[in-house]
Amino acid sequence: MSSAAAAAARFVTEAAIGTRVVVRRTIEGGVTDAVGYLRACGPVDCVVETKRGLVTIVLAEIVAAKEVPPPPAPRAPRHPFAD
Questions:
Q1: Quick check: helix, strand or coil at residue 45?
Q2: Contact at 8 Å (CB) between 15 and 67?
Q3: What is 3-67's CATH number?
Q4: pLDDT of res. 21
Q5: In sequence order, what are the residues at sequence separation of 6 or more whose Cβ sits closer than 8 angstroms to the Cβ of residue 64?
Q6: Do 62 and 11 meet the contact criterion of CB atoms below 8 Å apart?
Q7: pTM of the prediction?
Q8: What are the Histone acetyltransferase Rv0428c-like SH3 domain coordinates in residue numbering (predicted)?
Q9: pLDDT for 52-69, tens place per residue?
Q10: What is the structure's pLDDT at 29?
Q11: What is the pLDDT of residue 71?
């Protein structure tokens, strides 16, 4: 594990539960990101709640991670309904 990857894994283990994060991890054939709320973290893995559900990530697979701001508010409709 590179020093940047170790720092990313350390960030995840030290972040408060409920923090909104993006975690990049290795998968077969490349990398993928999980964006959501940190729900649990242990000595081997962590759990991020994404729009699609809970994702368990092995800490050794993390290559980058950081805190991200809350998602933007829903956009207003382009054309308000006419009465």
A1: strand
A2: yes
A3: 2.30.30.520
A4: 98
A5: 4, 5, 8, 23, 24
A6: no
A7: 0.84
A8: 16-66
A9: 999 999 999 999 999 999
A10: 94
A11: 87
Residues 20 and 69 sit within 8 Å (Cβ to Cβ): yes
Q: Which positions of the chain have pLDDT values less than 50?
A: none
What CA–CA distance (Å, rounded) separates 83 from 69?
Answer: 37
Q: What is the C-alpha to C-alpha distance for residues 63 and 5, in angstroms, rounded to an integer?
A: 4
21-31 exposure pattern, b = at least 16 Cβ within 10 A, e = fewer: bebbbeeeeee
The two three-digit tokens of residue 18, written as one number:
């409920």
Query: Buried (b) or exposed (e) across 39-67, using 16+ Cβ within 10 A?
Result: eebeeeebbbbeeeeebebebebbebbee
Tokens found for residue 80: 């308000």
What is the per-residue pLDDT for 2? 83
Taken as a whole, the chain contains a residue count of 83
